[in-house]
Specification:
About 45% of the residues lie in helices and about 10% in strands.
Length: about 325
Amino acid sequence: MLRVGVLAYPGCFASEVFGVPDLLTMATHVAGPEHAGYEVSVVSPRRRVVASGGVAVTVSALREVDVLVVPGFELAPGQDIDAKIANLAPEIEAIRSHAAAGDVVVSLCVGAFLLAAAGLLDHRRATTSWLFADELAQRYPETEVRPERLVVTDRGVTTTAAFSAMYDFALELIREHSGAEVARTTARVALVDDARSSQMPYVDTRLLPQPGNAFSRRVMRWLDQNLAVRYDLAALAGRFNVSTRTLLRRFAEEAGQTPLEYLHASRVRRARHLLETTDRTVAGICAAVGYRDPGTFAALFAKHTGRRPGDYRAAFRRDPSTL
């Protein structure tokens, strides 16, 4: 049997403590009694754990496992991550010890911050919730953060994107240990999407910290209000009474990107909204957000979201009655 331990700790998400074990239980039933299955335990260096929401979690002492899963924790933008990490020194040491023993270590969502604090993400590729990917990259510059990925595995350390990506990881684990057919059937039984490849379609840039200061924000506002206008750098610079060189320099210093990069992202954001909420054709939406060639638009849209426009609409189209 594959021994899987889930590390519970104060403030962790209870659903992430039990989500992976529950899917592994389903896989065991799907595979049948001939399959070795999984031995799952919830472990902690503490005797008592209260998870997020005040849910008491029954735990066992730390033990030898093949895979250690580290759930995420309650976190909002702007909260003090340092204080959270400082209060979890026993857990961070446990993570470090399991990795040193050769166990596979997995983080769910922002559990990646605990793996990083334990030194496991240095010189490794990793992912986390798209909402906190920039924070992870800034705090741990030795980590190559891949914010578009749902699951990243690099030399025995696995990290996942936000919340429901725990199921993407669990399905990968089931696929490796029990076979592709068991994983596929388990996904069907649980109504879990086993064909996702990116978290980019779920990114809502309105929730991210907005870059820029007064100058770049004025430029952004004009671009947002004129998405269909052909991009002309010289005309844009003239509108704000600066040279093209000054425009590019000041915008990059304040926003960390070029005006054209911002415009592409803004156009894609508007296109996503139109695909979700209207019946307009893809060609019509392409023109509405400033692109003449549907092929160019589709390629750019896929670069930003991980899906072609038609596939995005099929996945995220909202019921008009709820709008």
